[in-house]
Amino acid sequence: AISSGLLLGTVWNNLLPVAGLFVGFIPLLYLIEKKKVSAGAMLKYAFVSFFIFHLCTVWWIAKSGISGFLSVISINSFLMASAVALAVYTRKIFGKFAGYWALVIYWLSFEYIHYTWDLQWPFMNLGNWLGQLPAIIQWYEYTGVLGGTLWILSVNIFLLDFFLSLRERKRESLFINSVFLIVIIAFPLYFSNLLMSIEKTGKQNGKALIVQPNINPYTEKYNKSLFDKQISKQLQSAKNNLDSSINLLIFPETSFPIYLNRNKLAENPVLNELKNLTFYYPNLQVIAGIYTYTIIGNDTLYYNTAVFINKNQKIIIHDKSKLVPGVERTPFIRFLNIFKDINVDYGGINASLNTTETQNLFTAGKFQIAPLICYESVFGNYAADFVKKGADIIVVITNDAWWGNTPAYRQIMMHSCLRAIETRRQVIRVGNTGISGLINEKGAVIEQIPIEEETVLKVNFSTNKKQSFYVLHGDIIGRLAAFMSVILILATYVRDKKSIVY
């Protein structure tokens, strides 16, 4: 169990990135195969494995508080372990072959559910980690991240069977496993290489000015005495670098530390100053992050909001609707209303924010923009929905500064690369302290600003109107796995009960 955790924990490194994913499950599978552990015992062993996996990869969450860190990785480790334990239960009833593929089905269901329920935390989904090597996962435009998870689990299963056949000198089984291993490893790599050679960019081009203010969220950003200085510095940086060729001026998430009444946005002097820029530069549109609120009866509802400003229309808003569980909202609030004001501090604003269901595209002349705010960039299906509605470029505004100079920057940036591949859209990413830059439609970072640097960057971007298979059809693998999981769990339970009766 410890070996599995350590192997999985090596996925984030510069020497052999992602390699641990393809062998990390083998020790756990060996426990099932040779030690015949029960489902209950496997729940404990697997929990140890996945707890270590989290410790090695997302240890940076601890910067915001040990209790929050331990709670989030414990819950997710338990959920991962539950998928493995369920597979052991199914194996006991239906045999080895069914047990292996039950693991794949249950695990994919678990990852798919993470996109939809109140404890939505798909950050650790296995297929995400392949984003370190965009060149080998170009086929995500068909499968999304869950296709990567399917690939990882399949390789682990066939590798274990290969080694067991080799050790036990089962020639026929060894030959079959060798063939399957070659196919399932080589074909995705070949197909990805083929897709890399195909041009994905459309004809329309634009130019964006990215402002990276580099404001410390712990000592500066929410210090009221520094609000005016922060705002004026960002505005001045923009003015000093604007010219008539710029189509988009983009500031990061909550770039302006102001809380505005949603019904009175047009009266705010800061937003009016931004709007004045669009009159001076007629081709310019502005995207910026703020907090907004609305008052309903005795309640004040707060939103993490992106505003879109141009000279021709009123201010358009997009509210962050994928909120970090326990930080920006309380999970299962419908059933646990007494806890609505209690959240675990994982870093950032510790409050229950409100959401809206509507996904508002930002229309900037000939460009249709999908605005994603921070955590929303972790959800492939959410970005795909924007593109399905007509978005031809994605803008991610974020504030990753809570995590300091840790791997968090690059890990969170990696999700923007994944969204680029899935949707075949270029992504303009704008962070408070970085990483800001431009990602092309094949997931490669082609321009960027280093972290913790106060500066601006001009990027030339291209758009794409074609919609990928993933955009059109979504997470087919996840939906199919969820359906099969229900059938498999019911069948396992019924067969188990029958065997007890007889």
Silhouette: elongated
Rg: 24 Å
| Beta-strand content estimate | 15-25%
Determine the mean pLDDT. Answer: 90
Low-confidence stretches: 341-351
H/E series, N to C? HHHHHHHHEHEEHEEEEEHEHEEEEHH
Helix content: 40-55%
Structural class: alpha/beta
Work out the number of β strands: 13
Oligomer: single chain
Largest sheet: 7 strands, mixed
Terminal-residue CA separation: 35 Å
Instruction: Specify the number of helices.
Output: 14
Concise structural overview:
With 502 residues, the protein is of the alpha/beta class. The chain has helices at residues 2-8, 26-34, 39-57, 66-94, 96-113, 140-143, 145-168, 171-196, 227-241, 269-280, 380-388, 408-423, 469-473, 476-501; strands at residues 205-212, 248-250, 259-261, 285-296, 299-309, 316-319, 362-364, 367-373, 393-398, 427-431, 436-439, 445-449, 455-462.
Describe the structure.
This protein is α/β, with parallel strands linked by helices and 502 residues long. It is built from 14 helices and 13 strands. The protein has helices spanning 2-8, 26-34, 39-57, 66-94, 96-113, 140-143, 145-168, 171-196, 227-241, 269-280, 380-388, 408-423, 469-473, 476-501, and strands spanning 205-212, 248-250, 259-261, 285-296, 299-309, 316-319, 362-364, 367-373, 393-398, 427-431, 436-439, 445-449, 455-462. The strands form 2 sheets. Strands 1, 2, 3, 4, 5, 6 and 13 form a 7-stranded mixed β-sheet that branches. It has a 6-stranded mixed β-sheet with strand order 7-8-9-10-11-12, covered by helices on one side. A hairpin with a 6-residue loop joins strand 5 (299-309) and strand 6.
